[in-house]
Protein backbone atom coordinates (compact mmCIF):
# COMPACT_ATOMS: atom_id res chain seq x y z
CA UNK A 1 0.00 0.00 0.00
CA UNK A 2 2.80 2.51 0.69
CA UNK A 3 6.44 3.15 -0.04
CA UNK A 4 8.38 3.88 3.13
CA UNK A 5 7.97 7.62 3.55
CA UNK A 6 10.64 9.80 5.11
CA UNK A 7 10.48 9.74 8.94
CA UNK A 8 7.96 6.91 8.93
CA UNK A 9 9.65 5.16 11.85
CA UNK A 10 8.55 8.05 14.07
CA UNK A 11 4.94 7.69 12.94
CA UNK A 12 4.39 4.86 15.39
CA UNK A 13 3.84 7.78 17.80
CA UNK A 14 0.23 8.00 16.65
CA UNK A 15 -0.47 4.41 17.62
CA UNK A 16 -3.10 4.11 20.32
CA UNK A 17 -1.53 3.48 23.68
CA UNK A 18 1.95 4.79 22.78
CA UNK A 19 1.21 8.48 22.39
CA UNK A 20 3.48 11.00 24.12
CA UNK A 21 1.65 14.29 24.76
CA UNK A 22 4.91 16.20 25.21
CA UNK A 23 5.89 15.58 21.54
CA UNK A 24 4.71 17.79 18.67
CA UNK A 25 2.08 15.66 16.96
CA UNK A 26 1.43 18.31 14.31
CA UNK A 27 4.85 17.98 12.63
CA UNK A 28 4.12 14.30 12.27
CA UNK A 29 0.67 15.03 10.80
CA UNK A 30 2.28 17.42 8.29
CA UNK A 31 4.68 14.67 7.16
CA UNK A 32 1.82 12.19 6.84
CA UNK A 33 -0.38 14.55 4.80
CA UNK A 34 2.53 15.25 2.44
CA UNK A 35 4.14 11.80 2.12
CA UNK A 36 1.36 9.25 2.69
CA UNK A 37 -2.11 10.74 3.27
CA UNK A 38 -3.48 7.19 3.28
CA UNK A 39 -0.95 5.23 5.32
CA UNK A 40 -1.01 1.59 6.31
CA UNK A 41 0.87 1.21 9.56
CA UNK A 42 3.10 -1.81 10.18
CA UNK A 43 0.44 -3.00 12.71
CA UNK A 44 -2.17 -3.13 9.90
CA UNK A 45 -4.42 -0.14 10.60
CA UNK A 46 -4.85 2.57 7.97
CA UNK A 47 -4.51 6.28 8.85
CA UNK A 48 -6.07 9.05 6.74
CA UNK A 49 -4.74 12.57 7.28
CA UNK A 50 -5.68 14.89 4.35
CA UNK A 51 -8.82 17.03 4.72
CA UNK A 52 -10.47 16.09 1.42
CA UNK A 53 -9.96 12.36 2.09
CA UNK A 54 -11.17 12.48 5.70
CA UNK A 55 -14.24 14.55 4.69
CA UNK A 56 -15.09 12.08 1.91
CA UNK A 57 -14.67 9.08 4.24
CA UNK A 58 -17.00 10.59 6.86
CA UNK A 59 -19.93 10.36 4.45
CA UNK A 60 -18.88 7.23 2.55
CA UNK A 61 -21.51 4.54 3.16
CA UNK A 62 -19.02 1.82 2.22
CA UNK A 63 -17.19 2.58 5.44
CA UNK A 64 -19.12 1.07 8.31
CA UNK A 65 -19.44 2.43 11.85
CA UNK A 66 -19.93 -1.06 13.26
CA UNK A 67 -16.69 -2.83 14.15
CA UNK A 68 -16.36 -6.41 12.93
CA UNK A 69 -16.88 -8.99 15.66
CA UNK A 70 -13.56 -10.45 16.68
CA UNK A 71 -13.90 -14.18 17.35
CA UNK A 72 -11.43 -14.12 20.22
CA UNK A 73 -13.22 -11.40 22.16
CA UNK A 74 -15.66 -12.61 24.76
CA UNK A 75 -17.72 -11.39 26.37
CA UNK A 76 -18.36 -8.17 24.47
CA UNK A 77 -18.57 -4.92 26.32
CA UNK A 78 -21.58 -2.58 26.52
CA UNK A 79 -19.43 -0.33 24.31
CA UNK A 80 -20.79 -2.30 21.37
CA UNK A 81 -24.26 -0.83 22.15
CA UNK A 82 -23.08 2.75 21.76
CA UNK A 83 -24.78 4.80 19.06
CA UNK A 84 -21.42 5.67 17.50
CA UNK A 85 -20.93 1.99 16.55
CA UNK A 86 -24.42 1.36 15.12
CA UNK A 87 -25.66 1.12 11.54
CA UNK A 88 -29.06 1.27 9.83
CA UNK A 89 -32.36 1.11 11.72
CA UNK A 90 -30.78 0.74 15.18
CA UNK A 91 -28.72 3.85 14.60
CA UNK A 92 -31.75 5.81 13.37
CA UNK A 93 -33.93 4.76 16.34
CA UNK A 94 -31.34 5.55 19.02
CA UNK A 95 -30.30 8.83 17.41
CA UNK A 96 -33.89 10.06 17.02
CA UNK A 97 -34.59 9.42 20.71
CA UNK A 98 -31.34 10.94 21.99
CA UNK A 99 -31.42 14.08 19.91
CA UNK A 100 -35.04 14.98 20.62
CA UNK A 101 -34.18 17.48 23.39
CA UNK A 102 -31.59 19.22 21.19
CA UNK A 103 -34.23 20.52 18.77
CA UNK A 104 -34.16 24.33 18.59
CA UNK A 105 -36.96 24.86 21.14
CA UNK A 106 -35.28 22.57 23.65
CA UNK A 107 -32.00 24.50 23.65
CA UNK A 108 -33.31 27.28 25.89
CA UNK A 109 -34.05 24.64 28.53
CA UNK A 110 -30.33 23.74 28.62
CA UNK A 111 -29.06 27.26 29.38
CA UNK A 112 -30.05 27.53 33.07
CA UNK A 113 -27.99 24.39 33.82
CA UNK A 114 -24.97 25.91 32.12
CA UNK A 115 -25.41 29.21 33.98
CA UNK A 116 -25.79 27.41 37.32
CA UNK A 117 -22.53 25.46 36.81
CA UNK A 118 -20.64 28.59 35.69
CA UNK A 119 -21.89 30.51 38.69
CA UNK A 120 -20.74 27.72 41.00
CA UNK A 121 -17.30 27.17 39.48
CA UNK A 122 -16.35 30.62 38.17
CA UNK A 123 -18.73 33.18 39.68
CA UNK A 124 -18.63 32.15 43.34
CA UNK A 125 -15.24 30.44 43.49
CA UNK A 126 -12.00 32.24 44.34
CA UNK A 127 -9.49 31.77 41.53
CA UNK A 128 -7.09 34.69 41.42
CA UNK A 129 -3.36 34.26 40.93
CA UNK A 130 -1.86 31.12 39.42
CA UNK A 131 -4.70 28.66 38.93
CA UNK A 132 -4.86 25.17 37.48
CA UNK A 133 -7.96 25.77 35.41
CA UNK A 134 -8.69 22.18 34.28
CA UNK A 135 -9.51 21.17 37.84
CA UNK A 136 -10.87 24.61 38.82
CA UNK A 137 -13.54 24.84 36.14
CA UNK A 138 -12.78 23.33 32.69
CA UNK A 139 -13.65 19.83 33.93
CA UNK A 140 -16.02 20.74 36.74
CA UNK A 141 -18.46 22.77 34.61
CA UNK A 142 -19.17 20.27 31.76
CA UNK A 143 -19.27 17.43 34.28
CA UNK A 144 -21.92 19.16 36.37
CA UNK A 145 -23.91 20.31 33.32
CA UNK A 146 -24.19 16.85 31.73
CA UNK A 147 -24.81 15.19 35.09
CA UNK A 148 -27.65 17.53 35.97
CA UNK A 149 -29.14 17.38 32.45
CA UNK A 150 -29.26 13.59 32.77
CA UNK A 151 -30.77 13.77 36.26
CA UNK A 152 -27.72 12.26 38.04
CA UNK A 153 -27.96 13.00 41.79
CA UNK A 154 -25.36 15.58 42.91
CA UNK A 155 -23.78 13.05 45.30
CA UNK A 156 -23.10 10.71 42.36
CA UNK A 157 -21.47 13.35 40.12
CA UNK A 158 -17.90 12.46 41.27
CA UNK A 159 -18.42 9.01 39.72
CA UNK A 160 -18.36 10.60 36.27
CA UNK A 161 -14.74 11.78 36.58
CA UNK A 162 -13.45 8.27 37.35
CA UNK A 163 -15.41 6.62 34.55
CA UNK A 164 -14.40 9.31 32.11
CA UNK A 165 -10.69 8.94 32.83
CA UNK A 166 -10.90 5.14 32.43
CA UNK A 167 -12.95 5.22 29.22
CA UNK A 168 -10.70 7.88 27.71
CA UNK A 169 -7.75 5.54 28.23
CA UNK A 170 -9.71 2.49 27.11
CA UNK A 171 -10.70 4.05 23.80
CA UNK A 172 -7.05 4.79 23.17
CA UNK A 173 -5.66 1.30 23.64
CA UNK A 174 -6.99 -0.36 20.49
CA UNK A 175 -10.39 -1.70 19.60
CA UNK A 176 -10.02 -5.37 20.42
CA UNK A 177 -9.25 -4.54 24.02
CA UNK A 178 -11.81 -1.75 24.22
CA UNK A 179 -14.65 -4.09 23.24
CA UNK A 180 -13.68 -6.73 25.78
CA UNK A 181 -15.78 -6.35 28.92
CA UNK A 182 -13.13 -8.00 31.10
CA UNK A 183 -11.34 -4.70 31.58
CA UNK A 184 -14.07 -2.30 30.81
CA UNK A 185 -15.27 0.76 32.73
CA UNK A 186 -18.03 1.20 30.12
CA UNK A 187 -19.82 -1.79 31.61
CA UNK A 188 -19.78 -0.39 35.12
CA UNK A 189 -21.00 2.98 33.88
CA UNK A 190 -23.69 1.36 31.70
CA UNK A 191 -24.97 -0.72 34.63
CA UNK A 192 -25.30 2.48 36.68
CA UNK A 193 -27.21 4.25 33.88
CA UNK A 194 -29.44 1.23 33.19
CA UNK A 195 -30.50 1.35 36.82
CA UNK A 196 -30.86 5.13 36.58
CA UNK A 197 -33.09 4.78 33.48
CA UNK A 198 -35.30 2.26 35.26
CA UNK A 199 -35.80 4.61 38.23
CA UNK A 200 -36.49 7.57 35.94
CA UNK A 201 -39.21 5.65 34.09
CA UNK A 202 -40.85 4.80 37.40
CA UNK A 203 -40.86 8.49 38.43
CA UNK A 204 -43.12 11.27 37.21
CA UNK A 205 -40.69 13.69 35.57
CA UNK A 206 -37.87 13.10 33.09
CA UNK A 207 -34.66 15.16 33.13
CA UNK A 208 -34.19 17.77 30.41
CA UNK A 209 -31.91 15.66 28.20
CA UNK A 210 -33.96 12.48 28.48
CA UNK A 211 -37.37 13.36 27.11
CA UNK A 212 -36.75 10.67 24.48
CA UNK A 213 -36.10 7.94 27.09
CA UNK A 214 -39.47 6.15 26.84
CA UNK A 215 -39.15 5.88 23.04
CA UNK A 216 -35.54 4.73 23.38
CA UNK A 217 -36.41 1.95 25.83
CA UNK A 218 -39.39 0.89 23.74
CA UNK A 219 -37.21 0.61 20.61
CA UNK A 220 -34.02 -0.95 21.92
CA UNK A 221 -34.74 -2.17 25.47
CA UNK A 222 -33.53 -0.98 28.86
CA UNK A 223 -29.97 -2.34 28.70
CA UNK A 224 -29.06 -0.82 25.33
CA UNK A 225 -30.76 2.41 26.47
CA UNK A 226 -28.62 2.39 29.64
CA UNK A 227 -25.42 1.96 27.58
CA UNK A 228 -26.43 4.95 25.47
CA UNK A 229 -27.13 7.12 28.51
CA UNK A 230 -23.57 6.26 29.54
CA UNK A 231 -22.43 7.38 26.06
CA UNK A 232 -24.31 10.68 26.48
CA UNK A 233 -22.72 11.20 29.88
CA UNK A 234 -19.21 10.42 28.60
CA UNK A 235 -19.33 12.10 25.15
CA UNK A 236 -21.36 14.93 26.66
CA UNK A 237 -18.55 16.21 28.84
CA UNK A 238 -15.16 14.58 28.13
CA UNK A 239 -15.01 16.41 24.78
CA UNK A 240 -16.21 19.76 26.14
CA UNK A 241 -13.65 19.62 28.98
CA UNK A 242 -10.88 19.57 26.36
CA UNK A 243 -12.53 22.22 24.22
CA UNK A 244 -12.49 24.58 27.24
CA UNK A 245 -8.90 23.80 28.23
CA UNK A 246 -7.64 24.10 24.64
CA UNK A 247 -9.54 27.37 24.16
CA UNK A 248 -7.95 29.01 27.23
CA UNK A 249 -4.52 27.64 26.29
CA UNK A 250 -4.64 29.29 22.86
CA UNK A 251 -6.17 32.55 24.04
CA UNK A 252 -3.63 32.92 26.84
CA UNK A 253 -0.80 32.23 24.38
CA UNK A 254 -2.08 34.64 21.72
CA UNK A 255 -2.44 37.97 23.59
CA UNK A 256 -3.15 39.91 20.36
CA UNK A 257 -6.13 37.61 19.62
CA UNK A 258 -7.32 37.89 23.24
CA UNK A 259 -7.18 41.71 22.94
CA UNK A 260 -9.22 41.49 19.73
CA UNK A 261 -11.82 39.40 21.54
CA UNK A 262 -12.01 41.84 24.45
CA UNK A 263 -12.59 44.66 21.98
CA UNK A 264 -15.30 42.66 20.21
CA UNK A 265 -16.95 39.99 22.42
CA UNK A 266 -19.05 38.87 19.44
CA UNK A 267 -15.88 37.06 18.29
CA UNK A 268 -16.51 34.41 21.00
CA UNK A 269 -18.11 32.08 18.43
CA UNK A 270 -14.99 32.35 16.26
CA UNK A 271 -12.76 31.56 19.24
CA UNK A 272 -14.72 28.39 19.63
CA UNK A 273 -14.59 27.43 15.93
CA UNK A 274 -10.88 28.20 15.71
CA UNK A 275 -10.09 26.15 18.83
CA UNK A 276 -12.09 23.19 17.49
CA UNK A 277 -10.18 23.38 14.22
CA UNK A 278 -6.69 23.95 15.58
CA UNK A 279 -6.87 21.62 18.58
CA UNK A 280 -9.72 19.19 17.83
CA UNK A 281 -10.78 17.41 21.06
CA UNK A 282 -11.74 14.28 19.07
CA UNK A 283 -8.61 13.38 17.10
CA UNK A 284 -9.57 10.00 15.70
CA UNK A 285 -12.78 8.63 14.17
CA UNK A 286 -12.88 4.92 13.27
CA UNK A 287 -14.51 3.16 10.33
CA UNK A 288 -14.39 -0.36 8.83
CA UNK A 289 -14.76 -1.07 5.06
CA UNK A 290 -17.79 -3.27 4.26
CA UNK A 291 -15.82 -4.81 1.34
CA UNK A 292 -12.61 -4.23 -0.61
CA UNK A 293 -12.53 -0.59 -1.71
CA UNK A 294 -10.25 2.09 -3.07
CA UNK A 295 -9.18 5.21 -1.18
CA UNK A 296 -6.73 7.81 -2.51
CA UNK A 297 -5.20 5.26 -4.88
CA UNK A 298 -4.89 2.54 -2.20
CA UNK A 299 -6.84 -0.65 -1.65
CA UNK A 300 -8.56 -1.10 1.70
CA UNK A 301 -9.57 -4.57 2.82
CA UNK A 302 -12.93 -5.52 4.31
CA UNK A 303 -12.91 -5.08 8.10
CA UNK A 304 -9.55 -3.28 8.22
CA UNK A 305 -9.52 -0.49 10.83
CA UNK A 306 -9.49 2.92 9.09
CA UNK A 307 -8.58 5.80 11.41
CA UNK A 308 -9.68 9.25 10.23
CA UNK A 309 -7.30 11.79 11.74
CA UNK A 310 -9.54 14.83 12.33
CA UNK A 311 -6.75 16.76 14.03
CA UNK A 312 -4.55 16.36 10.92
CA UNK A 313 -7.38 17.17 8.47
CA UNK A 314 -8.28 20.33 10.38
CA UNK A 315 -4.74 21.66 9.94
CA UNK A 316 -4.46 20.81 6.25
CA UNK A 317 -2.88 23.82 4.47
CA UNK A 318 -4.72 22.85 1.27
CA UNK A 319 -7.95 23.70 3.11
CA UNK A 320 -6.95 26.38 5.67
CA UNK A 321 -4.44 29.17 5.08
CA UNK A 322 -1.80 29.52 7.83
CA UNK A 323 -3.33 26.31 9.17
CA UNK A 324 -1.09 26.05 12.25
CA UNK A 325 -1.95 29.52 13.55
CA UNK A 326 -4.76 30.56 15.92
CA UNK A 327 -6.50 33.31 13.93
CA UNK A 328 -9.93 34.61 14.92
CA UNK A 329 -10.88 36.43 11.75
CA UNK A 330 -10.05 33.73 9.21
CA UNK A 331 -12.32 33.16 6.25
CA UNK A 332 -15.06 30.65 7.13
CA UNK A 333 -14.28 27.06 6.08
CA UNK A 334 -15.95 24.14 7.76
CA UNK A 335 -13.79 22.09 10.09
CA UNK A 336 -14.48 18.43 10.85
CA UNK A 337 -14.30 18.56 14.66
CA UNK A 338 -17.92 17.39 15.11
CA UNK A 339 -17.73 14.80 12.32
CA UNK A 340 -20.04 14.87 9.30
CA UNK A 341 -22.75 12.77 7.68
CA UNK A 342 -25.19 10.44 9.43
CA UNK A 343 -23.12 10.18 12.59
CA UNK A 344 -22.51 13.90 13.05
CA UNK A 345 -22.37 14.93 16.72
CA UNK A 346 -25.73 15.47 18.41
CA UNK A 347 -24.34 17.60 21.23
CA UNK A 348 -22.77 20.36 19.19
CA UNK A 349 -25.23 23.04 20.30
CA UNK A 350 -24.73 22.19 23.98
CA UNK A 351 -20.93 22.27 23.62
CA UNK A 352 -21.18 25.65 21.88
CA UNK A 353 -23.50 27.12 24.52
CA UNK A 354 -21.15 25.93 27.26
CA UNK A 355 -17.96 27.20 25.64
CA UNK A 356 -19.33 30.64 24.70
CA UNK A 357 -20.94 31.09 28.15
CA UNK A 358 -17.75 30.06 30.00
CA UNK A 359 -15.65 32.35 27.82
CA UNK A 360 -18.00 35.29 28.36
CA UNK A 361 -18.00 34.71 32.15
CA UNK A 362 -14.19 34.40 32.21
CA UNK A 363 -13.64 37.64 30.26
CA UNK A 364 -15.98 39.44 32.64
CA UNK A 365 -14.30 37.98 35.71
CA UNK A 366 -10.59 38.30 34.80
CA UNK A 367 -8.84 41.22 33.15
CA UNK A 368 -5.63 39.18 33.03
CA UNK A 369 -5.44 35.69 31.53
CA UNK A 370 -1.79 34.77 30.96
CA UNK A 371 0.23 31.61 30.49
CA UNK A 372 2.65 30.36 33.15
CA UNK A 373 5.94 28.87 31.98
CA UNK A 374 5.74 25.06 32.07
CA UNK A 375 2.11 25.26 33.19
CA UNK A 376 0.61 23.19 30.34
CA UNK A 377 0.71 19.41 30.18
CA UNK A 378 -1.01 17.64 27.28
CA UNK A 379 -2.69 14.27 27.76
CA UNK A 380 -0.78 11.17 26.64
CA UNK A 381 -3.77 10.19 24.53
CA UNK A 382 -3.89 9.95 20.73
CA UNK A 383 -7.71 9.89 20.55
CA UNK A 384 -8.57 12.91 22.73
CA UNK A 385 -6.57 16.11 22.45
CA UNK A 386 -6.66 18.05 25.66
CA UNK A 387 -4.80 19.28 28.69
CA UNK A 388 -4.23 17.22 31.73
CA UNK A 389 -3.12 20.38 33.50
CA UNK A 390 -3.16 24.08 32.56
CA UNK A 391 -1.89 26.68 35.01
CA UNK A 392 -2.77 30.26 34.07
CA UNK A 393 -2.21 33.59 35.78
CA UNK A 394 -5.63 35.09 36.43
CA UNK A 395 -6.33 38.54 37.85
CA UNK A 396 -9.60 40.43 38.26
C1 LIG B 1 -16.45 19.88 21.92
C2 LIG B 1 -17.40 19.02 22.10
C3 LIG B 1 -17.65 17.83 21.21
C4 LIG B 1 -16.91 17.32 20.17
C5 LIG B 1 -15.59 17.83 19.60
C6 LIG B 1 -17.62 16.17 19.67
C7 LIG B 1 -17.22 15.39 18.59
C8 LIG B 1 -17.96 14.37 18.03
C9 LIG B 1 -17.62 13.65 16.82
C10 LIG B 1 -16.37 13.90 15.99
C11 LIG B 1 -18.59 12.74 16.59
C12 LIG B 1 -18.70 11.81 15.38
C13 LIG B 1 -18.18 10.42 15.64
C14 LIG B 1 -18.26 9.53 14.41
O1 LIG B 1 -18.55 9.96 13.29
O2 LIG B 1 -17.99 8.33 14.57
C15 LIG B 1 -19.53 12.85 17.67
C16 LIG B 1 -20.65 12.06 17.81
C17 LIG B 1 -21.46 12.10 18.93
N1 LIG B 1 -21.45 13.04 19.94
FE1 LIG B 1 -20.18 14.57 20.13
N2 LIG B 1 -18.75 15.99 20.43
C18 LIG B 1 -18.81 16.98 21.37
C19 LIG B 1 -19.79 17.18 22.31
C20 LIG B 1 -20.85 16.35 22.53
C21 LIG B 1 -21.86 16.52 23.53
C22 LIG B 1 -21.96 17.74 24.47
C23 LIG B 1 -22.71 15.45 23.45
C24 LIG B 1 -23.95 15.11 24.22
C25 LIG B 1 -24.55 15.87 25.10
C26 LIG B 1 -22.21 14.60 22.38
C27 LIG B 1 -22.77 13.39 21.98
C28 LIG B 1 -22.43 12.71 20.84
C29 LIG B 1 -23.11 11.49 20.40
C30 LIG B 1 -24.25 10.78 21.14
C31 LIG B 1 -22.50 11.12 19.19
C32 LIG B 1 -22.84 9.90 18.33
C33 LIG B 1 -23.66 10.33 17.10
C34 LIG B 1 -23.88 9.21 16.11
O3 LIG B 1 -23.13 8.23 16.14
O4 LIG B 1 -24.81 9.33 15.30
N3 LIG B 1 -21.09 15.18 21.85
N4 LIG B 1 -19.14 13.87 18.53
TrEMBL record:
InterPro entries the UniProt entry points to: Cyt_P450 (IPR001128), Cyt_P450_B (IPR002397), Cyt_P450_CS (IPR017972), Cyt_P450_sf (IPR036396)
Designated name of the protein: Cytochrome P450
Organism listed in the record: Mesorhizobium helmanticense
PANTHER family: BIOTIN BIOSYNTHESIS CYTOCHROME P450, P450, PUTATIVE (EUROFUNG)-RELATED
Superkingdom in the source lineage: Bacteria
Presence of the UniProt keyword Heme in the record: yes
Assigned keywords, A-Z: Heme, Iron, Metal-binding, Monooxygenase, Oxidoreductase
Similarity section: Belongs to the cytochrome P450 family.
Cofactors that this protein relies on: heme
PROSITE patterns in UniProt: CYTOCHROME_P450
Record GO biological process: cholesterol catabolic process
Amino acid sequence: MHQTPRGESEWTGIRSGSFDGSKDIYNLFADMRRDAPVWQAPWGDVYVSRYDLVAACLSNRRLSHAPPTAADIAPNSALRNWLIYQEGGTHTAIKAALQKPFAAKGLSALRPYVEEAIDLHIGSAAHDGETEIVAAFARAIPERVIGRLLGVPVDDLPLLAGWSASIRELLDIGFDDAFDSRLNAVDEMSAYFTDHARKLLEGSELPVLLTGLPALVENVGLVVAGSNLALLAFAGHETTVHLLGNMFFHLANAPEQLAKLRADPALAAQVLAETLRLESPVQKICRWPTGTMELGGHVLEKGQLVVLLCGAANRDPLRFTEADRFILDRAPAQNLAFGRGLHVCIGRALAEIEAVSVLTAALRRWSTIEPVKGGARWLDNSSFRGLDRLILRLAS
